[in-house]
Design a protein that fits this description.
With 295 residues, this protein is α/β, with parallel strands linked by helices. The chain has a single domain, classed as Alpha/Beta hydrolase fold, catalytic domain (Rossmann fold, 3-Layer(aba) Sandwich). The protein has 8 helices and 12 strands. The chain has helices at residues 2-9, 64-71, 73-80, 116-130, 145-156, 214-225, 273-276, 281-290, and strands at 22-30, 33-41, 51-57, 83-87, 90-91, 99-100, 133-143, 163-167, 184-189, 232-235, 239-244, 250-255. The strands form 2 sheets. It has a 10-stranded mixed beta sheet with strand order 1-2-4-3-7-8-9-12-11-10, sandwiched between helices. Strands 5-6 form a two-stranded antiparallel ribbon. Helix 1 (2-9) runs antiparallel to helix 8 (281-290) and helix 3 (73-80) packs parallel to helix 8 (281-290). The chain is globular and about 40 Å long. The two termini are 15 Å apart.
Length: 295
Amino acid sequence: MKSLLAISLLVGSLQASSASGQDTVVTVSVGNQQRTAYLHVPAKLDRGKKYPLLIGYHGGAGSAQQYVEQSQLFVKGERAGFIVTCPEGTSIGPLGKHRVWNSGPEYARSSRNADDVAFTRQLIDKISSMYAVDPKRIYATGFSNGGQMAYRIALEMSDRIAAIAPMSGGRLAEGSRPSRAVPVLHFHGTADGAYPLKGGFGPISIGVTPHVPIDDVILEWTRFNGARSEPRIILNDGWTMWVHDGTAPVALILVNGMGHQIAGGNDDHLPQQAMAAKLDSVQMALEFFQDHPIP
């Protein structure tokens, strides 16, 4: 797959800077609730062409604004020619600064059973009514609880989501399966203390439900997608990629020594092992998405 080969050679990261496009807040009604999302549109928008749309889900106990800053999703999406939206989850604190996604049963109570799948569908519809979104190029990524949400969206909205790139979070399908194969590019740190690679609880895990092993998540999606069971292994400086090839490939990138963070992200209070490894997960995800529209 040309995008995966390109990813294997990509060892540089983009310089973080302010996005130069148009940033707005979009509001949609989901049941009796008003839900919001931040939206970034490329500065030089060509009204005569259709654009890919990327949905980015923030981490649990985080926020969309925090995620935009840490991931630099608007900056990098701008450079790649994407419309990017970062929605807000359900508030779990009195000040509304900390939010979660209803990515599965473990978050149903804390999210007050928020219908985040319906929110995503309506958000796509709203943005598509405002701009020329290519319906075959709608993608999802997310960090931690947001990565779990990306998996849920791929499972329940495979009719609309072309591919996903979860980061530092996963979930199993719990007996369900997608209606079509959805390519997956998953990023994880080998020293993740919040979502351990082997599952269970880590020293900084939150919640009362043990996490599932990432290997189990990758195996499940390899079967969903009909990808090769034996991975192709690509070794790089500081990170390794396991690629299950197929029409809808499933790839796992492990960053040596990285904790619970976005690889190559702008997170100044955390050790930047990923930066030392010269790996930019958001840029790599954008490369992956470019090569995987809905057939």
